[in-house]
């Protein structure tokens, strides 16, 4: 029940913004339901008047009334469908934006361990759950429920017993559908898990295509994919029978509804209680119950899926973020850094940093050396504000890091990693990351500041050059140069360098080194590396081992 | 209908799918016909019952009982047909989609330029994941629509028998509607393409954000990224709404024509009913089946719509496997269910290695890292180092030698025999590219891949690559899962595993693009010692790309590349003396 409420309150939060439109649409929807229920009345009047061979006028009026009712309903429902889709898309896109904003503010420790595929699923597909939840809840289930009640209400005046019987049948049908659906959940879970395994295998083969060729081991990939295909088939088979089960149940429902409608219509007719038109009307109304019930059949499953999607998104939104607004600001000059008694552990882990203290005066360059996993990357990550800390203190210009305005911190502290981070698009997009406050002039200044003008010549369309993805495009060194240009656009007072010259060949290393030197000139620098020669240009070097700093 | 070449190719593709499992398809059509014709039977029973209302009140219920029982019986028959269809549908989907997937994958893995595959693995994956089911869907849907069509014919015959003039009359508004729908659907494919592009742009954007999260965070670019996201989303939204408008226009057109058809029919029926020649049951039958005719039309429209969608997907599939390979999509793929899935591992016979020769090899592409006119000979038992700075072309050269891409000019000879690309045999050349190549399975499978190997050979290969780490000899260690893309291993472990795997294949020439950059000094020395020892003992040779002094000093020959050409060849001493640019590329570490 709690999950239902959470999904609903999330939906309400977004629907609220469009409440006027939704209110109007709801009224129109009600009107179309009324038309749906009234139309058969015209049909019944037509039969009686045609049977009795009465006036031409009465028959024509009945036909035109019927025509007007169903035509109006057709047009209204088409317009409604489009309008509801439009509102639904707006709601989803608002939600998408919020989820993305939250995602981009999360501490990095919550991001590691999820592949980009998972993140895409979260950010795009799971968020889509809100749309289908909205659509199914408002339009399909609520609408069908309403239509069902309207039909039963219309019947109650003709035959209370039939109304009661159809009410029972509807209730049983909905319960039956729900039961089948619920029993199917584990089957669906099984099926989607197998699909995930299959997709993973396929993606892996494509990612590793180069190695498979180099080793002439294509057969391995084929066998692996075939195994995964069969596995997926057998695991998904029970789930693929589900719609058959539901359809069968619905066939039974249909038979029972029609038989009972006819039974009551005939009984009333035999008793001489109703006219032939009314008998037809009674039958028609009972048959009309089938359509909304089938809607229930079709959409109850969607409801569950979309709720699951909403909950997964909610999990992401529940992770707290730290954003400081209107906090302290750092001055425009080089920043002094003081770390005192800093301890840090990733969630559910042991301490990676054990009471680290260090001090870097403004403008000084400090190198930290240590093996992989010694905690040096964790330390620079904390100084960059990527994760929150609770024990110990980090001060920039004497201000505690957690009190500094987040936007100001991003502007003034530059963080450069060895990870290649490129996006599909132009060189300009890659340098500015879509931020159009940086004009071409500013970008070119940054490029010449880093002494990269010559390198820049190689791009045929200048900043508009579209960067090719894939292995034969930019080398990791060149990606590094783009990152450095990105950082040089701002005026950082503190530069954090994380192993930036690892894995580069000598020639690129030199170019990168020159650019780094230009970027770091007159600024405070903390650089980490596992090779000592990468730190030769530092003012001083400290060693780190198992989360502890060793002074030299 | 006018069919262009592309559409014709797609139709041929769909027909081939239908012919792929003929019996299954035929039974499926039959079952679908039963499922839908159930409605005709029920409607007929209802007509008989309602026509009974014309008589004297009191006997209608009694007369109706056989027909009420009939309704229940046909329902049971329908249920049997539904379950049969569910099973058949699952099977057809499996065979149609997976045969196609397998054939695409085979083509991709045999592409002359394999780098174009892994470089676009994201978008190729999308094709295999989304476009494959989308392209086979019309063939899957066709059986259902055929079933419905059969039902419609039955319904139509009943209507014609009851009153043929009336039946023909109601066709007029409906045929106008069908014409309108046909006109609308002509623009369907183009819109489908744009819609697809808007969706693709959105997922590509999210994927970029996911990949560059750290940079976006640390440069404070979140707001700029979010506003770009808004633009991408609003494009997609516009496409979705346009689609909805189209669908609603089609359905309004059809439903509207049914309304008008019913009204027209009612005018005529009124006079017939007054003359008692047209019963209330007949009237209800006509009302019910008018819907059926419209329904059949909208199902056919749906099939056309899905086909247009599928055609776009089919073109994307053709796009990734190249046009002239379209026939390959319907090859046998041996993916039968109910057969042993475990294919026995291969045992390739070894060939004695005497020489590997490269003659005037060139590879130039749009980038600057190509090379031209490279020739050399590799004798048995030698360690060859390829050295060179950025843009020297050394990585590209190794790629061509490994068969990752075809050379523009020049040939390669193995024991004097011309080597073709991509059909190579594993025992001749085995390569380890710079990155990747790990499967989320145990170490042993990652080492052996498709070959059958005994533990002794595995241990030996691991030892040569200094990948001991408590691994050799312990079965448990070898069964350890190395995680997604090998991320449970360190960078150094991955490099050594790649080296061990290359050696394990016992190829005449092993080619390794950087296997030591993440190793410490001690391990490097050990790897070098083991490797030279192994090469000398077996008479096999190895080509390694490296600028590391340690390896360069021990190499039998260094091929020093600069600007895409061989600058100099010789051993370390010779190059130090004769080549002035050589010392600058040497990395001391």
Helix and strand layout, with pairings?
The complex is a heterodimer of chains A (552) and B (589).
Chain A: H1 2-15, H2 19-51, H3 56-105, H4 116-156, H5 160-207, H6 209-214, H7 218-240, H8 242-270, H9 276-288, H10 290-318, E1 337-345, E2 351-360, E3 365-369, H11 376-383, E4 391-396, E5 399-400, H12 406-412, E6 413-416, E7 425-426, H13 427-432, H14 440-449, H15 453-456, E8 466-467, H16 476-488, E9 494-498, H17 506-520, E10 524-529, E11 540-545, E12 548-550
Parallel strand pairs in A: 3-10, 3-11, 6-9, 9-10
Antiparallel strand pairs in A: 1-2, 1-4, 4-5, 7-8, 11-12
Helix pairs in contact in A: 2-3, 2-4, 2-9, 3-4, 4-5, 4-9, 4-10, 5-7, 5-8, 5-10, 8-9, 8-10, 16-17
Chain B: H1 5-20, H2 22-51, H3 60-109, H4 115-118, H5 121-162, H6 164-185, H7 188-211, H8 213-218, H9 222-274, H10 280-321, E1 356-363, E2 371-378, E3 383-387, H11 394-402, E4 409-414, E5 417-418, E6 429-432, H12 443-448, H13 455-464, H14 475-478, H15 491-504, E7 509-513, H16 521-538, E8 541-545, H17 549-554, E9 557-562, E10 565-570, H18 572-578, H19 582-585
Parallel strand pairs in B: 3-8, 3-9, 6-7, 7-8
Antiparallel strand pairs in B: 1-2, 1-4, 4-5, 9-10
Number of domains of chain B: 2
The CATH homologous superfamily of the largest domain in chain A is called ABC transporter type 1, transmembrane domain
Strand/helix succession of chain A: HHHHHHHHHHEEEHEEHEEHHHEHEHEEE
> What is the 3D shape of chain A?
elongated
* Fraction in helix of chain A: 55-70%
* CATH level-two architecture of the largest domain in chain A: Up-down Bundle
Distance between the termini of chain B: 71 Å
SS-derived structural category of chain A: alpha/beta
The radius of gyration over CA of chain B amounts to: 35 Å
């Amino acid at each position: 029940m709690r999950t239902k409420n959470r999904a609903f309150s999330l939906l309400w939060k977004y629907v609220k913004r469009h409440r006027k439109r939704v209110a109007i649409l709801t009224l129109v929807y009600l009107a179309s339901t009324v038309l749906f229920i009234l139309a058969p009345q015209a049909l019944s009047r037509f039969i009686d008047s045609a049977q009795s061979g009465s006036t031409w006028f009465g028959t024509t009026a009945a036909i035109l009334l019927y025509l007007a009712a169903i035509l109006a309903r057709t047009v209204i429902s088409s317009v409604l469908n489009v309008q509801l889709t439009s509102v639904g898309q707006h709601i989803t896109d608002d939600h998408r934006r919020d989820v993305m904003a939250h995602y981009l503010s999360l501490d990095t420790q919550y991001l590691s361990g999820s592949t980009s595929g998972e993140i895409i699923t979260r950010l795009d597909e799971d968020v889509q759950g809100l749309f289908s939840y909205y659509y199914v809840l408002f339009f399909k289930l609520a609408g069908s429920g309403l239509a069902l009640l309207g039909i039963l209400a219309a019947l109650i005046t003709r035959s209370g017993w039939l109304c009661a019987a159809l009410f029972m049948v509807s209730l049983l049908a909905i319960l039956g559908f729900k039961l089948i659906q619920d029993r199917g959940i584990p089957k669906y879970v099984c099926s989607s898990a197998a699909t995930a395994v299959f997709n993973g295998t396929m993606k892996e083969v494509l990612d590793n295509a180069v190695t498979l060729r180099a080793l002439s081991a294509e057969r391995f990939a084929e066998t692996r994919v075939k195994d995964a295909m069969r596995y997926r088939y057998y695991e998904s088979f029970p789930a693929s029978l589900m719609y058959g089960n539901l359809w069968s149940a619905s066939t039974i429902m249909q038979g029972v509804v029609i038989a009972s409608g006819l039974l009551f219509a005939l009984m009333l007719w035999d008793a001489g209680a109703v006219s032939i038109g009314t008998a037809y009307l009674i039958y028609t109304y009972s048959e009309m119950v089938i359509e909304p019930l089938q809607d229930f059949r079709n959409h109850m499953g969607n409801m569950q899926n979309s709720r699951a999607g909403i909950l997964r998104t909610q999990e992401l939104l529940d992770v707290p973020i730290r954003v400081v607004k209107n906090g302290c600001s750092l001055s425009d000059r080089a920043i002094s850094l003081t770390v005192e008694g800093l301890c840090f552990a990733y969630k559910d882990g042991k301490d990676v940093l054990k009471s680290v203290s260090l001090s870097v005066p403004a403008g000084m360059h400090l190198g930290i050396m240590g093996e992989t996993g010694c905690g040096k990357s964790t330390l620079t990550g904390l100084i960059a504000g990527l994760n929150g800390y609770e024990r110990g203190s980090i001060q920039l210009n004497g201000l505690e890091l957690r009190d500094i305005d987040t936007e100001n911190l991003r502007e003034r502290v530059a963080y450069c990693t060895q990870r290649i981070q490129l996006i599909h698009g132009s060189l300009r997009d890659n340098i500015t990351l879509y931020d159009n406050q940086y004009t071409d002039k500013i970008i070119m200044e940054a490029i010449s500041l880093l002494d990269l003008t010559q390198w820049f010549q190689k791009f045929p369309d200048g900043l508009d050059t579209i960067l090719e993805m894939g292995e034969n495009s930019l080398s990791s060194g060149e990606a590094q140069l783009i990152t450095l240009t990105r950082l040089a656009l701002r005026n950082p007072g503190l530069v954090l360098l994380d192993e930036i010259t690892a894995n580069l060949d000598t020639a690129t290393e030199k170019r990168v080194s020159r650019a780094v030197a230009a970027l770091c000139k007159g600024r405070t620098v903390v650089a980490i590396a596992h090779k000592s020669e990468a730190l030769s240009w530092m003012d001083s070097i400290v060693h780190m081992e198992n989360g502890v700093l060793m002074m030299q | 209908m006018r069919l262009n070449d592309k559409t014709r190719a797609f139709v041929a593709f769909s027909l081939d799918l239908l012919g792929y499992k003929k019996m299954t398809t035929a039974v499926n059509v039959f079952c679908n016909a039963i499922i839908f014709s159930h409605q005709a039977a029920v409607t007929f029973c209802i007509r008989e019952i309602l026509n009974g209302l014309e008589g004297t009140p009191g006997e209608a219920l009694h007369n109706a009982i056989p027909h009420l029982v009939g309704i229940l019986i046909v329902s049971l028959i329908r249920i049997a047909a539904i379950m049969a269809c569910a099973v058949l549908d699952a099977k057809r989907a499996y065979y149609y989609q997976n045969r196609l997937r397998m054939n695409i994958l085979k083509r991709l893995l045999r592409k002359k330029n394999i780098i174009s595959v892994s470089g676009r693995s994201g978008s190729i994956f999308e094709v295999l994941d989304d476009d494959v089911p989308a392209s086979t869907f019309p063939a899957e849907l066709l059986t259902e629509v055929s079933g419905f069509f059969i039902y419609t014919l039955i319904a139509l015959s009943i209507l014609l028998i009851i009153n043929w003039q009336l039946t023909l009359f109601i066709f007029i508004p409906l045929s106008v509607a069908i014409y309108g729908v046909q006109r609308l659907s002509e623009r369907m494919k183009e819109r489908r393409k744009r819609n697809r592009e808007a969706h693709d742009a959105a997922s590509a954007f999210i994927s970029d954000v996911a990949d560059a999260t750290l940079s976006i965070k640390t440069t404070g670019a979140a707001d700029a990224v979010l506003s770009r996201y808004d633009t991408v989303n609003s494009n997609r939204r516009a496409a979705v709404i346009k689609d909805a408008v189209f669908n609603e226009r089609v359905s309004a057109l059809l439903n509207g024509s049914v309304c008008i058809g019913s009204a027209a029919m009612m005018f005529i029926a009124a006079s017939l009913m007054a003359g008692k020649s047209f019963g209330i049951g007949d009237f209800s039958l006509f009302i019910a089946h008018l819907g059926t005719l419209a329904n059949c039309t909208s199902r056919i429209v749906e099939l056309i719509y899905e086909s247009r969608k599928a055609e776009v997907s089919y073109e994307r599939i053709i796009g990734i496997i190249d046009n002239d390979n379209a026939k390959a999509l319907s090859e046998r793929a041996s993916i039968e269910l109910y057969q042993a899935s475990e294919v026995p591992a291969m045992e390739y016979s070894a060939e004695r290695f005497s020489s590997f020769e490269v003659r005037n090899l060139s590879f130039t592409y749009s980038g600057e890292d190509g090379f031209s006119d490279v020739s050399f000979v590799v004798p048995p038992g030698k360690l060859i180092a390829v050295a060179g700075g950025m843009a020297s072309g050394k990585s590209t050269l190794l790629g061509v030698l490994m068969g990752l891409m075809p050379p523009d000019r020049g040939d390669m000879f193995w024991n004097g025999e011309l080597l073709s690309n991509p059909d190579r045999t594993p025992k001749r050349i085995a390569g380890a590219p710079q990155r990747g190549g790990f499967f989320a399975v145990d170490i042993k499978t990652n080492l052996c891949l498709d070959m059958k190997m005994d533990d002794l050979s595995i241990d030996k290969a691991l030892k040569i690559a200094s990948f001991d780490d408590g691994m050799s000899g312990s079965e448990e260690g070898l069964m350890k899962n190395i995680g997604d893309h090998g991320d449970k291993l360190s960078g150094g472990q991955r490099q050594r595993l790649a080296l061990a795997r290359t050696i394990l294949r016992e190829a005449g020439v092993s080619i390794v693009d950087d296997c030591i950059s993440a190793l410490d000094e001690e391990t490097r020395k050990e790897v070098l010692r083991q490797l030279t020892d192994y090469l000398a003992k077996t008479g096999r040779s190895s080509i390694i790309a490296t600028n590391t002094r340690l390896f360069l000093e021990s190499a039998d020959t260094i091929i020093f590349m600069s600007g895409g050409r061989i600058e100099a060849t010789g051993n370390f001493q010779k190059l130090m003396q004769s080549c002035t640019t050589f010392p600058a590329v040497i990395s001391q570490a």
